[in-house]
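Quick review question:
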């Protein structure tokens, strides 16, 4: 059972990492936050697929171009989790995808994993 789950996790990770580091046009739909993170809900402009971008809260700089709702940005997206962390994720029932305050993710193996944008710091879009 564990080896099957590990194989599935690796396949999903490999599939979701293809094109990693490429810029994608993403429309910002909603922004939530916790004490330490911003959760930016977006939608790929091309496919319409919904995604979740996690951004650690940070001090805003004076030259901040704040991310705005309903705007479209060209984002350099990468996986929020590294491959070692992905392999250690516990198996949970379908529909379970949670990010705790400490950055720990509970993932069902089916939902799209959270991403991070290299050109977003806090809620600042870095051009």
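Suggested answer, residue by residue:
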């Amino acid at each position: 059972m564990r080896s099957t789950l590990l194989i599935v996790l690796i396949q999903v990770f490999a599939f979701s990492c293809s094109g990693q580091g490429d810029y994608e046009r993403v429309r910002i739909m909603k922004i939530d936050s916790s004490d330490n993170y911003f959760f930016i809900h977006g939608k790929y402009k091309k496919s319409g697929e919904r995604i979740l971008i996690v951004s650690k809260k940070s001090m805003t700089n004076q030259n901040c171009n704040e991310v705005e709702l309903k705007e479209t940005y060209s984002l350099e997206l990468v996986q929020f989790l590294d491959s070692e962390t992905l392999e250690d994720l516990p198996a949970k029932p379908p529909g379970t995808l949670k990010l705790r305050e400490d950055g720990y993710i509970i993932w069902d193996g089916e939902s799209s994993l959270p991403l991070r944008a290299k050109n977003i710091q806090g809620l600042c879009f870095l051009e």
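Why it works: Confidence is low (pLDDT under 50) at residues 1-20. The two ends are 45 Å apart (CA to CA).
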